[in-house]
Amino acid sequence: MKRIDTLIIGAGQAGLAMSYCLQQRSVPHVLLERGEVGNSWRTERWDSLRLLTPNWQNRLPGHARAGSDPNGFMDMTGVVDFLDSYAARIAAPVETQTRVLSVSRGGDGYRVATDKGDWTCRNLVLASGACNRPSIPAYAEELPGHITQLSPLEYRNPSKLPEGGVLVVGASASGVQIASEIRAAGREVVLATGQHIRMPRHYRGRDIQWWMDRSGILSTTTAEVDDIARARAVPSLQIFGDASKQFLDLNALQKNGIELVGRLAAIRGDEALFSGGLANAAMLSDLKMNRALTSFDAWAAEAGIAGLPSPERFAPTRIPASPKLRLDLAKGKISTILWATGFQPDFSWLHLPVFDRKGRLAHQDGIVAPGLYVLGLPFLRRRKSSLIDGVGDDAAALADHLVQSTRCNAA
Amino acid sequence: MTQVSTAPVKNGVNTEALIGARGAFAEAPAAAQFTFKSTCDWIEGTYNRNTIGGYFGLGQTHARKRTFSIESDHPEVFAAADRAPAPPEIVLSALASCLTGGVAAVAQHRGVQLRSVRATVEGDIDVQGILGMDPDIRNGFSAIRVSFEIDADASADDINAIVAQSQKRSAVFDILTNPTNVAVTVA
After folding, report:
1. For residue B166, which phi and psi values (nearest 5 degrees)?
2. Which of the listed residues B50, B84, B118 is the one where a domain comes to its end?
3. Cys staple from B108: which of A171, A314, A315, B13, with CB 3.0 to 4.6 Å?
4. Each residue of A260-283: pLDDT tens digit?
5. Contacts A–B by Cβ distance under 8 A
6. What predicted TM-score, i.e. pTM, was given to this entire model?
7. Of A265, A275, A284, which has the smallest distance from its Cβ to B164's Cβ?
């Protein structure tokens, strides 16, 4: 049994940022990593994926560099190199190829069992990621057996899919990007679309992330929103990490020949049934985009930002007059269903009473229980918490809390 | 979003109570399980009458303040006596009522004073379906259109947002746009 003051589970951007912050505060710690540094980026991403945030925005504490072009977007090789170089620069004490099997209470803190032996620690930081498992609806089990089902975690590129058409379920960033490239490879693609967020890549000559960063939207705290559960469930923007692609919205997808249908509501026999509420989903999204742009305009006027082109508004989303309500899955037109229906963290090894009635980890701004912290979840402390750029502030705040609590308990 | 108004907004919806209920149901989700009920008696021909007098919710059955009734019949063109609206018309009116009530509630919550709201609902049916003439034609509506005329102290975008939010939170909109398992038995 090894003993250390603080254990960090996961050596992605969250675990590494916490390692840096603990080093700064002289807290002895070790990171346990199931694979290599940045494992999810390394092994669970599709080939063409690029970060949605430009390089200038990928700031980790104590590390300035991110890509040669500040306005470029890193591919996955770039992200892995970035995290590898960060881990090396901060000399993070990572135990790689070490999978956590269970966490329970023990001693004056926690007992962590791994496939490389057991540890005890006073403090434990969960930094194992927000997207370990796809959120797939229960009715997926009722699908006919000849349909291949996969999530963005397994998807790599269109050539790996079986011949035939593809039903992509979900129109957030993953869904629209994957639908777009499968269609570009010549496949028939149907996109089932529920709640989604339309946004241009650029607005008034600046990247959309510049607006969100500078106007303060990304720094919004949990105390500043009415309904934090809802804020944590907001889907990702319909954008792509490529400055030349202004829109990857429903208009652009339809122009490329993708068929739009409403939210996938049920599987009945061999048929997929879709909601008839697509028009309202598109209307809500247009209104939300326009409210965001209006708030950016107001901020720019108040802050006196000079040299910006005039405000603009974009053509509304066009929806087919009568989107299909049902799709026969037995006739062979659709061979694959891709579930771009969101992700959830995997805390199946966390054997502690720290979950709410829906099985979600309960925490207050990243504090789960005495000596137990979590990092990297959507809107953990701020809207940017799940971004590479957001995890540093969270890690610093939780490291401060950890040091103060440890001092109090020791006194 | 419009939040500022000098006079208190009075659309007659007690949003404070509804927000209080959200808090209570978050603590006790079982209390949020409701069952609504209508009992329909045949009178003659296609003429019949529903009575609605109670429901289950908050863990117990409740009586309504009085027993309501909804009658239904068919127009003369279907060889009926036209004593009451046809069931599909009642469905359209249920949708209109649900969305209109939602508009009032959302407007109240957003501090928007309504002066008038009118929803006109149309549903298209090819009656070859219900007459069993063509299996490719469905029995129900092939399309439903709702048109709102709203006079309120708000911008066009704010009014559109209120109508969109009303759809997002409407029971009947959900019932009509998504499939529901329906079990029919004979006692």
Report:
1. -60, -40
2. B84
3. B13
4. 999 999 999 899 999 999 999 999
5. 37
6. 0.93
7. A284
